[in-house]
Fold this sequence. Notes:
By secondary structure, the chain is an alpha/beta fold. The chain has one domain (2-92, 111-115): 3-Layer(aba) Sandwich (Cytidine Deaminase, domain 2), CATH 3.40.140. Helix content is 37%, strand content 31%. It is built from three helices and five strands. A hairpin with a 3-residue loop joins β2 and β3 (37-47). The radius of gyration is 14 Å and the shape is globular.
Amino acid sequence: MDYHWTIEAYSKVAFHACKYLTHPLTGLLLGYVSDKSIQIVDAIPLFHSAITSSAMEIALLQVDDYATKRELKLVGVYTASSFTSKPSSESVVNVAVSKVASKLKQFVNDAFVFVVR
């Protein structure tokens, strides 16, 4: 599977990460899916703090509605830990992000997690 990013989608992720360097952050990726590729055309910044399941559930419903109206699919989730903390061997993908990614894979087989470092 090939993944192609638009400049707009990639820039949104980068700017979200730059704005909140000292915070963990999470967002969703929207795009088009074909047999051989996923085109990521939009990024929706969601959180720049710890995630609660209820907040994530509400965000997913709202973003899914937004995507459906634009004929897009939720194709991935992006995450970053605080850029001021030292890298560790611990998983950089927290439990809430892993759950979202698993749920997305039920609808888009090649959905993915993009880790910003």
